[in-house]
Write a structure and sequence with these properties.
Layout: E1 2-6, E2 9-11, E3 32-34, H1 36-52, E4 55-61, H2 67-76, E5 80-84, H3 94-108, E6 113-117, H4 128-136, E7 140-151, E8 154-161, E9 164-171, E10 174-178, H5 190-198, E11 203-204, H6 247-261
Parallel strand pairs: 1-4, 1-6, 4-5, 5-11, 6-10, 7-10
Antiparallel strand pairs: 2-3, 7-8, 8-9
The structure holds flavin-adenine dinucleotide.
The site of flavin-adenine dinucleotide has 37 residues, from α1, β4, α3, β6 and α4.
């Protein structure tokens, strides 16, 4: 089997900061890691390769530093990695990102499955996997929790739905986005790390993937982040200080009075 795993490098924080002027993510000064949910996609692909043979290719679009994320994927066991990195990709929304990744996948040649993470912990849309499927005209199954047997030229899977599981079959090639239940990600091995350090990771730009430049980057993105707002958690707390032990009764009386005032206690 030939398996492609698109992985995204994300800031190692859930507190993603956005540039209010450009609407783009502020990545400088924040440690970057492999999107944690993509580790499950890598693991799922490696297990399929172990069961059926073949090759796992990790693919990422991002700044040159995303090379590190790809080498981590190789240290876990991916056979090859390709980075899409060029100023013309910068600022791509989910549509342009999915287009660029789909073009790169066309260039990579025949494959059986594309396995994505459920969502990226920064952008958090979960749109890129189905977007890739749409550009390539492939079936897409999201929230896959189990990959079963290969049958009748396709693959049987289970996907999580609210309150249960759905069993589906999709013809290959197909795109799956997987959830954490799929398999616990392995740690990189020392041998894997050595191999990853020495590996060639080709860097492709728009010409290499034969992409339309007007479909890339901020200019090629049909959506824009117009405004980013962080919800303000406003608490009007009241602090009752206790200095001496005799203050305790006074503090309890004050709390009880408040609870009665707010009709929480009668
Ligand atoms: C309406 C809208 C407008 C936006 N506008 C801007 C903008 O103006 N400027 C800007 O900088 N950003 C913008 N973004 C953010 C940008 O679209 C995302 O960072 C990027 O497209 C990936 O989407 P995501 O993070 O939601 O990934 P998801 O769709 O949540 O990721 C799902 C899976 O897709 C794969 N994947 C996602 N991204 C990549 C990648 N880069 N390489 C390889 N695999 C990947 C991974 O397997 C991942 O687990 C916008 C997003 C939205 C929703």
């Amino acid at each position: 089997m030939r398996l492609i795993v698109p992985i995204k490098q994300v800031p190692e924080t859930s507190n993603v900061k956005m540039d209010p002027e450009t609407g783009t993510m502020v990545r400088s000064g924040v440690e970057a890691i492999v999107n944690p949910l993509d580790l499950y996609a890598i693991e799922a692909a490696l297990r399929l390769r172990e069961a059926h043979g073949g090759q796992v290719v990790a693919l990422s679009m991002g700044p040159p530093a995303a090379d590190k994320a790809l080498r981590e994927a190789m240290a876990m066991g991916c056979d090859e990695a390709v980075l899409l990195s060029d100023r013309r990709f910068a600022g791509s929304d989910t549509w342009a990102t999915a287009y660029a990744l789909a073009q790169a996948i066309r260039k990579l040649g025949p494959f059986d499955l594309i396995i994505c993470g459920e969502r990226a912990t920064d952008g958090d849309t979960g749109q890129v996997g189905p977007g890739i499927a749409s550009f390539l005209g492939l079936p897409a199954i999201t929230y896959v929790s189990k990959i079963g047997e290969l049958a009748d030229g396709g693959v049987r899977v289970e996907r999580l739905v609210e309150g249960g599981r759905e069993r589906l079959w999709a013809a290959l090639p197909a795109v799956l986005t997987v959830v954490k239940e799929i398999a616990y990600p392995r740690l990189p091995t020392l041998r894997g790390k050595q191999r990853a350090r020495q590996a060639q990771v080709p860097v492709w730009g728009p010409p290499e993937i034969e992409a339309r430049e007007d479909w890339l980057g901020l200019k090629g993105s049909p959506t824009r982040v117009v405004k980013i707002e962080k919800p303000q958690v406003a608490r009007q707390g009241e602090l009752i200080r206790i200095k001496e032990s005799e203050d305790v009764d006074r503090a309890v009386d004050a709390v009880m009075a408040r609870l009665r005032e707010w009709r929480i206690l009668s």
